[in-house]
Amino acid sequence: MENAEKFLATFNRIHQHLNHLIGENGYLPFYELLERAEKRNDAVKKHKQALQIFADLRNVLVHNKWKPGVYLADPTDEILKEIEQMEEEISHPTAIYPRFKRNVITFQETDSLQKVFEKIKLEKAGHFPIYQQKQFKDVLTAKGIIYWIAKHSYDHTNNLLDVQIKDILEKEYSSDNYLFIRQGMPIQTASDLMIKNKKLEALMITENGKSTENLLGIITPSDL
Fold first, then answer.
1. Given a cut of 60, is residue 155 above it in pLDDT?
2. How do residues 44-100 score in pLDDT, each as one tens digit?
3. Which label site among 88, 93, 129, 168 has the fewest CB atoms less than 10 Å from its CB?
4. For residue 23, is it left (φ>0), alpha (ψ between -120 and 50) or beta?
């Protein structure tokens, strides 16, 4: 009955991890716990049906012993391997990198609006980190550009496309529409950040989540 003991220990670790995942300190029925946790962990969603079956098996093992220390059934090696693999996937969720690895289009703050438009047309991108030399300044978005044009088009009738990015940022932007995040952050954690803060336009990926590091990728609301 060695497999039964290993199965129960693994199942209990998964149960504890799900409680931690949703911030539940009390007791919830396992099926309800799965319903909540699958929204926060891709592996839980992937293995939900199997975990429900394993929960039933767990109940049989725990509540229907033949006699003390003797289980009615002993999970096979294959079942034990399956639940151990599920535990690994659930407790070590997929990281944002390299899934969201991409070449990020950036601009210098002295670049013109025309240069930005050319990139939007060619690349169909809408979120652009802006730098002053190597120092990060802000994130310019296509939505922000449209808003700025709507407000200032009459002020720049003849040279709208020559306006520098820094002029747009100085007048219209705050610094709360982005975050730098580390490459090892779980995808679900990144998604939660954007769900909780509707102002976020971009999550910029670097090795340790620092603005002084090279950009490895970028995540926008539409990506998640």
1. yes
2. 989 999 999 999 999 999 888 777 778 888 999 999 999 999 999 999 888 899 999
3. 88
4. left
What tokens were used for 191?
A: 């998604």
Distances in Å between the Cα of 11 and the Cα atoms of 55, 69, 128, 170 are 8, 18, 45, 55
Query: What is the C-alpha to C-alpha distance for residues 2 and 196, in angstroms, rounded to an integer?
Result: 45
**With left for phi above 0 and alpha for psi between -120 and 50, is residue 7 left, alpha or beta?**
alpha
SS3 readout for the chain: CHHHHHHHHHHHHHHHHHHHHHCCCCCCCHHHHHHHHCCCCHHHHHCHHHHHHHHHHHHHHHHCCCECCECCCCCCHHHHHHHHHHHHHHHCCCECCCCCECCCCCEECCCEHHHHHHHHHHHCCCEEEEEECCEEEEEEEHHHHHHHHHHHHHHHCCCHHHCEHHHHHHHHCCCCCEEEEECCCEHHHHHHHHHHCCCCCEEEEECECCCCCCCCEEECHHHC
Q: pLDDT tens-digit profile of 13-54? A: 999 999 988 887 767 889 999 999 988 888 898 999 999 999
Q: Nearest-5° angle of CA 63, CA 65, CA 69?
A: 120
* Integer angstrom CA distances of residue 39 from 70, 174, 216: 37, 31, 26
Q: Domains of the chain, with CATH numbers?
A: 2-91 (no CATH), 107-223 (3.10.580.10)
